[in-house]
Amino acid sequence: MKVTITKNESEFDCTAAWRIIGEILRKPEAVIGLSTGRTTGNLHRIVGEVYSRYPFNTSAVTFFGLDEVTNVPREYAGACYTMLKTEIIDTLGIRDENFLMLPTFSDDFRRDCIAFQEEIARRGGIDLLILGLGENGHLGFNQPQSPFDGEAWVTKMNPELEERIRRETGTPPEKELGGATLGIKNIMQARRIVLVAKGSNKAGIVKQMLDGPVTPDVPASVLQLHPDCEFLLDTASASELSEN
What we know:
InterPro entries: Glc/Gal-6P_isomerase, Glucosamine6P_isomerase, Glucosamine6P_isomerase_CS, NagB/RpiA_transferase-like. The protein is α/β, with parallel strands linked by helices and 244 residues long. The protein contains seven helices and ten strands. The strands form two sheets. A seven-stranded parallel beta sheet has the order 1-10-9-6-2-3-5, with helices on one face. The protein has a three-stranded antiparallel beta sheet with strand order 4-8-7.
């Protein structure tokens, strides 16, 4: 288990960005998974800034999003598709066929989840997966008590996020919202994982993730068992770890 603690937010964002760039330089046909949220937006933009100044070959790389909000338009600013397109995909000139996403609308989400994970496998499997950390320890939309042997599925999102999305999209209460996501089994099959977390609001869950037991109560704790997972933190998020 590798823990990297950066001195400040700028170093954190640059370090994380270079994990992605380094993977592309190492393996031009790499399959790289991305996550959305407040933690990853800046690091995605830095990848784009480096590419704009010092272009590198992105023609063969495949990017995919770990998860997606269901039953909202893809054009919605909070849809993972739109966030990734805006933050990194378009800047790097990634072709549509090399940007894989779960759908926001479907008449058969189970079918589409299976097809999604099968397409990732067809391309050789996940070389690098960048994971954010939810304040309750969730990974993607795998909330506490999600099965460790679970594959891609549609599950519930946390109530606070659902309330915000309903408000922003005008989605009525009778219309179901959820989250399509790779399951924890899929996540653990990635060859290399970088879990990114920053800010004092993540300090408590970082401690549970790294110092606590491996338990479905804290889905991210399962990463303790991954053979090549780096936990990339800033000083604030690492402040409660036992070695500090």
